[in-house]
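B., you asked whether I could sanity-check this one before it goes into the benchmark set. Here's the sequence:
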Amino acid sequence: MTARLIDFRHTDEATRWRAINDDVMGGVSRGGLHGEDGIGVFSGETSLENNGGFASVRREPEPFDLSDTPSMVLQVRADGRRYQLRLYTEQLPQGAAYRAIFQPPAGEWQRVALPWHDFEAVFRGRRLEVAWLGTLNS
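And here's what the prediction gave me:
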């Protein structure tokens, strides 16, 4: 089953995202997201100054039932760097998420399929030992 969960062709979608950068811990990295011609555009700069090093965006929570889907699929055009997709669920402790890492080639549109077994439970970048739940629905 294929369902489009997030669609930047909806004019208000980009407003549902907010920056979460390393300034929350004293860093100086910058990042954010805006909509452009129906596409969500993430941009930013990371800096290792003041023990920083990340720029990210987070969407306001919304429950999705993903139990009938074999993977999360992203349509991306990136810069060749490594990225993470984190999915939050009530089945993990607060602040923990399931994380998948991907590195699409620079400059070309790419369909990235992230099967559920690629996701690992993490808290503040550290792996958690949890029993795999099979799906990421809450």
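One thing to flag: Residues 134-138 have pLDDT under 50 and may be disordered. Otherwise nothing jumped out at me.
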